[in-house]
């Protein structure tokens, strides 16, 4: 044993023996391998880079969703995966014209410090670091604070009319016309795919909004619900930025590892019906803005190595769960579960991930293709809830939950309630407005979001746009119901004239 | 008897153009440590190094970094910028002036 140690220290002419490093790169058979990926394949630095870059471009090329000249918003959290995505786009745009990515990027960075209880000084420091990276990237950028959810309009929660889905032919035509345009513009313009524009940043959040946001997050009873709430609010904010600045695609940096964890977490959270949207390459739930996940074939290990070997900058930001123990939330538990399995069985992540690839987005049974049913107020998925089907466990849960959440008013004023049951439109409307706003919000949520909202003792601290949209929707639903009654009455009259 | 070694131990994966120190919460905000491992009977390997780190560098919650006698799943180890899987993982014998980097791929880590 001792001799081995001495050997290493001996200033011998030849490099010391390195166990395992005699093997060569599996691709070029020459280079010294630096990273092991895909269960045992050793890659050298150059081959790893080629492999990594190719995979990013292949995912975009295969799906043909991003049209040339289209405005694409890159959602950058500062973390390794989204930073890597940023750099891949940057590199893709600077390539020679045949291989160049042809969309017009912008970056959005959401400062979530208030939700994690960061001090104003720390937040300023993090934002300054983020700004530094954004300046070096040079794309137009938007820094938004999570507090801005308090000034969002309720229209964020509406699914805008879907643009016609691009067919193969449409994509080719778009590429051709783009190339012609570029040709006409001349060479000097081509070298500048996106002229630098002034950065867009709203003023810093007001102290009142920061206060409101931290009140909201501290009122949430579990870390699981906190993480879900943060994810929901962040999505709405990014969606709003995309819409107000005319971006039609949003790129998220979810890696393969992260998506495998997300798939299992979503299952545990009761979001099984939406797995295909939550984890697929593209997510069209918002209609006019489509979310795409171009990093979905890169594992976190690949991302970490690439960022290290090629000096991709990222910004460290504490998350709501930083330093949290392993069992603090379903998200953390699932992460530990998957990563531990992965350590013993190196195909775990890819197996789970491949499952997510096979999921098909099918409309629910009973929903006609053209008319999607009502959507969840928070996650904006088509509701998976069937209130009529009270025989299922879920039906039991909802029917047991609703009376509970209704205030004692409903019982005290029993006569009013019974008047609703007679089916008179006007009476229904009058007692509906007295109904608990909580019940009104809950009934507009999907199963997963309902379960989640159980950990929010009061919905009052929620940003106003959510409550306003909930009210708007239930009023609209009532108006429709009234309309139905009116129509029925007329039909009745027509069918049996004189009887009424 | 192995002589004392000087190795660089680094935590976190963040390379920043501004060369700003990046806070790694577990290790009291210090990212890079130049450490001197005392001479001992057995040669220094990664397994021993982890024990030494746990005793000397970890400020709190060792379970977030170490599990059993190895690192927690989700933490990558790079030895002189190469994957430790190529070098024998826990059994790699440290040499003077080696640099060992730990990268966490864990959420919020």
UniProtKB/TrEMBL annotation, chain A:
A Pfam short name: CTU2
SUPFAM superfamilies per record: Adenine nucleotide alpha hydrolases-like
Subcellular location: Cytoplasm
UniProt xrefs under InterPro entries: CTU2, Rossmann-like_a/b/a_fold
Keywords: Cytoplasm, tRNA processing
GO biological process, one term: protein urmylation
Ranges where the record places region Disordered: 1-22, 187-208
Biased segments, Pro residues type: 193-202
MF terms (GO), sorted A to Z: nucleotidyltransferase activity; sulfurtransferase activity; tRNA binding
Signal peptide limits: none
Listed pathway(s): tRNA modification; 5-methoxycarbonylmethyl-2-thiouridine-tRNA biosynthesis
One cellular-component annotation, GO: cytosol
Family: Belongs to the CTU2/NCS2 family.
Function: Plays a central role in 2-thiolation of mcm(5)S(2)U at tRNA wobble positions of tRNA(Lys), tRNA(Glu) and tRNA(Gln). May act by forming a heterodimer with CTU1/ATPBD3 that ligates sulfur from thiocarboxylated URM1 onto the uridine of tRNAs at wobble position.
Protein's name according to its UniProt entry: Cytoplasmic tRNA 2-thiolation protein 2
Originating organism: Balaenoptera musculus (Blue whale)
UniProtKB/TrEMBL annotation, chain B:
Keyword Cytoplasm: yes
Cross-link (Glycyl lysine isopeptide (Gly-Lys) (interchain with K-? in acceptor proteins)): 109
Subcellular location: Cytoplasm
Listed GO CC annotations: cytosol
Residues recorded with modification 1-thioglycine: 109
Protein's UniProt name: Ubiquitin-related modifier 1
Similarity section: Belongs to the URM1 family.
Pfam families (alphabetical): Urm1 (PF09138)
Residues annotated as signal peptide: none
Subunit structure as annotated in this protein's UniProt entry: Component of a complex at least composed of URM1, CTU2/NCS2 and CTU1/ATPBD3.
Biological processes annotated in GO: protein urmylation; tRNA thio-modification; tRNA wobble uridine modification
Pathway(s) where this gene product acts: tRNA modification; 5-methoxycarbonylmethyl-2-thiouridine-tRNA biosynthesis
Function text: Acts as a sulfur carrier required for 2-thiolation of mcm(5)S(2)U at tRNA wobble positions of cytosolic tRNA(Lys), tRNA(Glu) and tRNA(Gln). Serves as sulfur donor in tRNA 2-thiolation reaction by being thiocarboxylated (-COSH) at its C-terminus by MOCS3. The sulfur is then transferred to tRNA to form 2-thiolation of mcm(5)S(2)U. Also acts as a ubiquitin-like protein (UBL) that is covalently conjugated via an isopeptide bond to lysine residues of target proteins such as MOCS3, ATPBD3, CTU2, USP15 and CAS.
PTM annotation: C-terminal thiocarboxylation occurs in 2 steps, it is first acyl-adenylated (-COAMP) via the hesA/moeB/thiF part of MOCS3, then thiocarboxylated (-COSH) via the rhodanese domain of MOCS3.
Top-level taxonomic group: Eukaryota
Main location: cytoplasm
Family matches, as Gene3D superfamilies: 3.10.20.30
CDD domains the UniProt entry points to: Ubl_Urm1
Native source species: Balaenoptera musculus (Blue whale)
Keywords per UniProt: Cytoplasm, Isopeptide bond, tRNA processing, Ubl conjugation pathway
InterPro entries per the UniProt record, alphabetical: Beta-grasp_dom_sf (IPR012675), Mopterin_synth/thiamin_S_b (IPR016155), Urm1 (IPR015221)
């Amino acid at each position: 044993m001792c001799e081995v140690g001495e050997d290493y220290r001996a200033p011998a002419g030849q490099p010391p023996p390195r166990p395992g490093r005699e093997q060569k790169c599996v691709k070029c058979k020459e280079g010294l391998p630096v990273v092991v990926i895909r269960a045992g394949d050793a890659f050298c630095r150059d081959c790893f880079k080629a492999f990594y870059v190719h995979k990013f471009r292949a995912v975009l090329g295969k799906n043909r969703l991003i049209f040339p000249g289209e405005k694409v918003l890159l959602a950058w959290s500062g973390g390794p995966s989204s930073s890597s995505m940023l750099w891949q786009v940057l590199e893709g745009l600077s390539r020679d014209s045949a291989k160049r990515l042809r969309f017009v990027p912008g970056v959005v960075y959401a400062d979530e410090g208030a939700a994690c209880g960061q001090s104003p000084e720390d937040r300023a420091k993090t934002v300054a670091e983020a700004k530094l990276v954004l300046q070096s990237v040079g794309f137009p950028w938007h820094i938004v604070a999570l507090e801005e959810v308090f000034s969002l309009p309720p229209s964020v929660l509406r699914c805008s009319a879907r643009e016609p889905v691009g067919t193969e032919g449409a994509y080719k035509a778009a590429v051709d016309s783009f190339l012609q345009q570029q040709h006409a513009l001349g060479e000097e313009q081509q070298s500048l795919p996106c002229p630098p524009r002034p950065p867009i940043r709203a003023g810093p959040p007001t102290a009142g909004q920061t206060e409101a946001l931290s009140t909201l997050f501290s009122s949430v009873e579990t870390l699981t619900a906190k993480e879900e709430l943060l994810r929901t609010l962040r999505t709405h904010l990014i969606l709003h930025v995309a819409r107000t600045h005319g971006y039609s695609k949003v790129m998220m940096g979810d890696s393969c590892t992260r998506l495998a964890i997300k798939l299992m977490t979503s299952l545990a959270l009761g979001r099984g019906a939406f797995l295909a949207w939550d984890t697929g390459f593209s997510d069209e739930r918002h209609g006019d803005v489509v979310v795409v996940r171009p990093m979905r074939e890169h594992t976190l290990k690949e991302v970490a190595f690439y960022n290290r070997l090629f000096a991709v900058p990222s910004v460290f930001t504490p998350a709501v769960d930083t330093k949290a123990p392993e069992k603090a939330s379903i998200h953390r538990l699932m992460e530990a579960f998957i990563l531990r399995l992965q350590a013993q069985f190196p195909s775990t992540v890819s197996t789970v991930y491949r499952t997510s690839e096979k999921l098909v987005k099918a409309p629910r049974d009973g929903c006609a293709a053209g008319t999607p049913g009502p959507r969840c107020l928070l996650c904006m998925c088509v509701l998976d809830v069937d209130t009529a089907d009270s025989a299922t466990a879920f039906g039991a849960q909802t029917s047991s939950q609703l009376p509970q959440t209704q205030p004692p008013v409903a019982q005290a004023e029993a006569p009013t309630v019974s008047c609703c049951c007679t089916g008179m439109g006007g009476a229904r409307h009058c007692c509906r407005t007295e109904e608990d706003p909580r019940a009104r919000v809950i009934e507009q949520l999907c199963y997963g979001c309902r379960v989640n909202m159980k950990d929010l003792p009061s919905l009052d601290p929620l940003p106003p746009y959510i409550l306003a949209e909930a009210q708007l929707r239930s009023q609209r639903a009532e108006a429709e119901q009234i309309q139905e009654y009116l129509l029925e009455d007329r039909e009745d009259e027509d069918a049996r004239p004189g009887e009424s | 008897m192995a002589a004392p070694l000087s190795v660089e131990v680094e935590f976190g994966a963040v390379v920043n153009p501004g060369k700003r120190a990046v806070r790694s919460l577990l290790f009291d905000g210090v990212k890079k440590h130049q450490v001197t491992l005392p001479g001992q009977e057995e040669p220094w390997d990664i397994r021993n190094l982890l024990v030494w780190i746990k005793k000397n560098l970890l400020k709190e919650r060792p379970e977030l970094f170490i599990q059993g006698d190895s690192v927690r799943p989700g933490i990558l180890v790079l030895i002189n910028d190469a994957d430790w899987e190529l070098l024998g993982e826990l059994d790699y014998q440290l040499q003077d002036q080696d640099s060992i980097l730990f990268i966490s791929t864990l959420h919020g880590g």
